[in-house]
Amino acid sequence: MTFTNAPVTRLTVLGLVSVSIAASMLDVKHYFYIHIDTHLWRYRQFWRLLAYQLCYTNSAEVLFAAMSLYNLRVVERMWGPRKYASFLIVSSLFTAVIPPLIMAVLRPLSAALFNYMPAGPTPVIFAVLAQFYAVVPHTYKYRVATSQAPPTSEPFSGLTLSDKSYQYLIAFHLALLQWPGSVVGAAVGWLVGHAWRGGILPATLVAWRLPAWMVGLSAQRRSAEFEGLRRRLEGENAAAAVSTGVQGQAEGQQADRRRTMGQQIVDQFREAL
């Protein structure tokens, strides 16, 4: 499997990996995470709210984030690159502000435990994961026994999983790497994703779309796609019409044969009389 029909996902993964590597090589990783008391309250560095989701600060998070985005590319294939890119931008704006705000509220209540907001787009990934959970059906399910095989008279004891479970496990592991800040970000991203889908967010934001040229969709390309769709539908209609005509002709021939046999019977009775 590749990034076919998922250009936004390909650009997101390449950009995330490139920026993370560049931040490490240039030794500027300290600009991408947030200490609530120092960076926001003391020095008023509010620009960090827009910067902290641009990259990760360690290789493990980069790996699991890239794997998660790659697994979630099916959402872009179902929606199209324009809608998917628009959703990423809208969700990133909400997740840029809400998780640090929640951390700022919880910090004085938890002895400064909720003071560190880690770098990385984990909230955005979980917003996409919420869409994946809602729109992509599972293909199969399987069971994992938690004990030895029970006798036939006892019910099965174990876990029921699906083919989507490993994608949730990868994202869940990503959320635990920088606990508790990453957990807060993941929870907010999940809620934002469901709020976007459930119509809780303003309708103007949900309906907003990026210009087509920004995701590589020109007017000529869209017209070619519609023309191909029109031709495909016309071909299907023509095939259906031919099939219907052949079926009607066969039924007519069968009816003629039934009428001919009936006429023969009537003629035989007439000759006998």
Automatic annotation (TrEMBL):
Q: Which GO terms describe its molecular function?
A: ligase activity; serine-type endopeptidase activity
| Any one Gene Ontology BP term | retrograde vesicle-mediated transport, Golgi to endoplasmic reticulum
Q: Which residues cross the membrane?
A: 6-28, 49-72, 84-106, 113-134, 166-192
Where is this gene product found? Membrane
Where is it chiefly localized?
membrane
Q: Look up keyword Transmembrane helix and say if it applies.
A: yes
Superkingdom in the source lineage: Eukaryota
Alphabetized, the UniProt keywords read: Ligase, Membrane, Transmembrane, Transmembrane helix
Q: How does it sit in the membrane?
A: Multi-pass membrane protein
Q: Which GO terms describe its cellular component?
A: membrane
InterPro entries, alphabetically?
Answer: Rhomboid-like_sf (IPR035952), TMEM115/Pdh1/Rbl19 (IPR013861)
* Official protein name in the record: DSC E3 ubiquitin ligase complex subunit 2
From which source organism is this entry?
Tolypocladium paradoxum
- Source lineage: Eukaryota, Fungi, Dikarya, Ascomycota, Pezizomycotina
